[in-house]
């Protein structure tokens, strides 16, 4: 129960950390901008004893000037079911507002402003509870950067505070800690006290992207918070309520002694139904005769039964072409928007179409399709996130992300746009921030190698997440588009590819000597031929339609078109290239077996004379495929005669395996 004097109203440890000059001077340690000043901070309070959190002191501070003399509003949120904030991205589904402070006077840097609240939030001993301190009117709160989410940054005999994230208002951001004093009271200790500590099964939110069944056993963990032993034979009455259904009461009979601070679990024999997709509420209450503290007997939790799209087959490709063109904030199937309190285009990822925004003629894929965009408005927009489906990397060794990025840019743009990609582990809830980015676009840094309105490819190594089940989080915000023309400074992404990276063993193009293309040609890593990547390459054609072979080399040179079984590095010839088709190398000829000459520009009969480069060095040949069944056609590779400029009289092109759709 709260004492009138607010027992330990300001934690001694926190005074040492945040009032003492050595800690207040520790800024710019890896955060974005000026230290970790932001509009929202998430963090955990982990209780060693039964504590009741009553109030917070904060330091309000803007990047431009201190909050001296300003009246600001603040909010305090906490997780509805107790527990850590980790993995609980949804707002307001997982959070409840427990306190609003209005008209708080800013006293300047280094001076605390009490919020003057009476929160009365219980954090039982041995449990964690997530909190959010934020300003709904976009006031800034002082904080500091952290190396990782979840690390302790302050503790005493009663509690530990763990670092969380800082962001604009309410989104998941980068690891940071708030500058905060905590006012709390301690209840107990009691001779006899049982705490409902946690739900062990089914696995609480976040789930493994799998739907639970209608026949699940709930496993609950309890904790002895009293000062006396719980002896064998002691009976604890446990009641379970799922989704506001009928209460189920069973009896846990202790089979061994449970010492103070020790935990024990109980598995309900009755089945619980979690078959419906979405969140399920779970309420567990423990009753022990003589328990002196009933405030920690009941535990409320949320268990989410999957239902999200779980991708197990790769490559996974999202080109945004299947979207509803009448509702342009609805993401593709399996993708989710971060829920925000803002409204309008700037509050969500927007799925744009040609002509919608000035300067963007179309998407990357075909020029007239759709793409994902963060629309720029006249003021700083809140950070918003777009989350991919669950990506199951269980059987991948080197997962990789490839996507195309474009930005509308106005010369003289003075403000800042941010873009990052995070990875959320769906099994542990651990968020890894900035596997890409933060890319900062402003007048000082520019965008390296990016030009106005162009599409540019970016690759992200995800091999650190091999074997995991994750979601990708595209997180960004936009600011004013410039002094001259506002609202034209958008972020745009398109053609997202996730795949298992394979080291290219095949030969790339040899520009000027031997190049070869059939339709849209990509290698096993989905790199386009024109990018200069190694092969072998792959292309698809359709029966009863034209298959066009394009080749180039030196002008007026014969071309031999070869066919055979794909076999990267079948044979290597200095100054000529390598053959990526055929079987074992014949010891007499030094050429792989099983290679067939399909066309020879050295011959004068039939269609062979068509297989020659023109005066431009290019050649093209089209053929209508017959009505052949789908499947592998063959692997093509070209040998083009040269004048010896490359050290030999022949050059080998890249190989292309062709499949009939």
Task: Offer a few descriptive terms.
single chain, 661 residues, mainly beta, 8-stranded antiparallel β-sheet, 7-stranded mixed β-sheet, 2 helices, 43 strands, disordered N terminus
Question: What do these coordinates show?
Answer:
- 45% of the residues are buried.
- Strands 1, 3, 4, 7, 8, 9, 10 and 11 form an eight-stranded antiparallel β-sheet that branches. Strands 20, 22, 25, 26, 28, 29 and 31 form a seven-stranded mixed β-sheet that branches. Strands 21, 23, 24, 27, 30 and 32 form a six-stranded antiparallel β-sheet that branches.
- Residues 1-34, 62-67, 339-346, 442-452 and 481-487 have low confidence and may be disordered.
- Helices cover 2% and strands 42% of the residues.
- The protein is mostly beta strands and 661 residues long.
């Amino acid at each position: 129960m709260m004492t009138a004097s607010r027992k330990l109203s300001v934690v001694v440890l926190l005074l040492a950390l945040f009032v003492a000059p050595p800690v207040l001077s520790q800024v710019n340690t890896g955060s974005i901008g000026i230290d970790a000043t932001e509009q929202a901070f998430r963090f955990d309070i982990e209780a060693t004893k039964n504590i009741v959190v009553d109030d917070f002191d904060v330091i309000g501070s803007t990047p431009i000037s201190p909050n001296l003399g300003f009246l600001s509003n603040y909010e305090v949120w906490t997780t509805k079911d107790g527990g850590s904030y980790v993995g609980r991205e949804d707002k307001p589904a997982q959070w409840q507002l427990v306190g609003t402070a209005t008209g708080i006077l800013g006293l300047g840097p280094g001076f605390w402003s009490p919020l003057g609240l009476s929160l009365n939030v219980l954090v039982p001993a041995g449990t964690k509870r997530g909190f959010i301190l934020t300003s709904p009117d976009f006031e800034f709160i002082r904080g500091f950067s952290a190396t990782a989410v979840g690390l302790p940054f302050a503790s005493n005999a009663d509690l530990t505070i763990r670092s969380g994230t800082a962001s604009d208002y309410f989104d998941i951001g980068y690891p940071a800690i708030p500058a905060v004093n905590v006012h709390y009271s301690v209840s107990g200790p009691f001779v006899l006290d049982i705490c409902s500590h946690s739900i062990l099964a089914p696995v609480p939110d976040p789930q493994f992207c799998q739907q639970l069944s209608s026949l699940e056993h709930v496993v609950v963990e309890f904790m002895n918070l009293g000062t006396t032993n719980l002896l064998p034979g002691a009976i604890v009455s446990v009641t379970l309520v799922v989704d506001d259904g009928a209460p189920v009461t069973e009896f846990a009979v202790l089979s061994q002694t449970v010492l103070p601070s020790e935990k024990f679990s109980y598995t309900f024999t009755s089945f619980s139904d979690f078959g419906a997709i979405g969140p399920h509420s779970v309420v567990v209450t423990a009753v022990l005769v003589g328990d002196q503290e009933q405030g920690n007997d009941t535990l409320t939790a949320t268990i989410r039964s999957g239902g999200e799209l779980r991708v197990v087959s790769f490559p996974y490709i999202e080109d945004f072409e299947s979207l509803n063109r009448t509702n342009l904030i609805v993401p593709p199937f399996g993708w989710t928007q971060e829920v925000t309190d803002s409204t309008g285009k700037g509050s969500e990822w927007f799925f744009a179409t040609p002509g919608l925004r000035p300067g963007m003629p179309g998407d990357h894929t075909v020029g007239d399709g759709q793409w994902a965009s963060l629309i720029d408005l006249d003021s700083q927009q809140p950070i918003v996130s777009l989350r991919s489906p669950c990506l199951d990397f269980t059987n991948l060794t080197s997962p990789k992300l490839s996507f195309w990025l474009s930005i509308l840019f106005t010369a003289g743009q003075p403000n800042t746009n941010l873009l990052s990609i995070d990875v959320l582990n769906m099994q542990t809830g651990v968020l890894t921030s900035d596997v890409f980015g933060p890319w900062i676009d402003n007048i000082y840094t520019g965008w390296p190698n990016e030009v106005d309105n162009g599409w540019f490819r970016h690759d992200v190594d995800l091999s650190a997440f091999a074997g995991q089940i994750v979601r990708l989080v595209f997180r960004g915000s936009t600011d004013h588009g410039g002094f001259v023309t506002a609202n034209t400074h958008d972020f745009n992404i398109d053609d997202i590819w996730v795949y298992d990276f394979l080291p290219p063993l095949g030969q790339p193009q040899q520009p000027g000597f031997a190049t070869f293309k059939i339709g849209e040609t990509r290698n096993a890593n989905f790199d386009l031929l024109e990018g200069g990547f190694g092969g072998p390459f792959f292309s698809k054609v359709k029966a009863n339609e034209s298959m066009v072979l394009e080749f180039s080399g030196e002008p007026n040179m014969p071309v031999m078109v070869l066919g055979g079984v794909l076999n990267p590095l079948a044979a290597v010839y200095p100054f000529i290239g390598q053959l990526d088709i055929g079987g074992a190398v014949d010891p007499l000829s030094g050429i792989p077996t099983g290679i067939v000459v399909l066309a020879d520009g050295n011959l004068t009969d039939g269609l062979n004379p068509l297989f020659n480069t023109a005066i431009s060095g290019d050649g093209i040949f089209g053929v209508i495929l017959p009505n052949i069944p789908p499947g592998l056609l063959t692997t093509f590779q070209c040998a083009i005669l040269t004048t010896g400029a490359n050290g030999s009289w022949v050059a080998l092109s890249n190989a292309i395996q062709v499949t009939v759709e």
